[in-house]
């Protein structure tokens, strides 16, 4: 019997058009009505994740920043695993030296430490990743008008974040140089005490070494007396691999998932553009 469903957002619950389908919402609410708990497990910050989930009519708890924070539906922090300031400073400096976009998710919101041009290229990279029919050059021309660019809050130094006593939950970077991103995932986790992963081939996500979606779900379930074989997990990318391990009862890969995820998961559902999450819930409940 399934007692807990844990779902990723981007590429999973959320479509490529950045919405949560009615089919997914109805299946989630049906499961909740049957007494099954639903929780969001995402690389996003709470401030980024909650408005979209809430506006879709879903009320639930959140494991955000790849497990760096557990928040309830009201946004209160229940549990946290942040990065050490000294480590943040070193990694930010290294990413800046390589000319990469740098953004930090903190207890005071999200901030970018990159210049305007780098921010625009990062937004263009994100747009191109979701909409391959738009070239990265075309996306760059429209970047300043895009909501992703308008949401960026710039700071000149990471010290501005520390001076406000904000804790850093995640460092992220974007680049269309996929080989560079892949190498950084490997090298940074060896060089520093961090967990380096990503939601897509174009991005890098750095968190506390104990901040992993799989471990976070296990801890969450254990505190509620839920056994591993009573948990369904759904994801599509690198940072979902931890929550798709064999120890969970029902591990679901999206139809649009990367091959590593499909190989590891026990089942494959439809894509994020075809109610894949809702269909998986309907199938197994």
From TrEMBL:
Domain of life: Bacteria
Pfam family, one: Hydrolase_3
Gene Ontology CC terms: cytosol
InterPro entries listed in its UniProt record: Cof, HAD-like_sf, HAD-SF_hydro_IIB, HAD_sf
Gene Ontology molecular-function annotations: magnesium ion binding; phosphatase activity
PANTHER family: 5-AMINO-6-(5-PHOSPHO-D-RIBITYLAMINO)URACIL PHOSPHATASE YCSE (PTHR10000:SF55), PHOSPHOSERINE PHOSPHATASE (PTHR10000)
Protein name (database record): Haloacid dehalogenase
Organism (species): Enterococcus florum
Organismal lineage: Bacteria, Bacillati, Bacillota, Bacilli, Lactobacillales
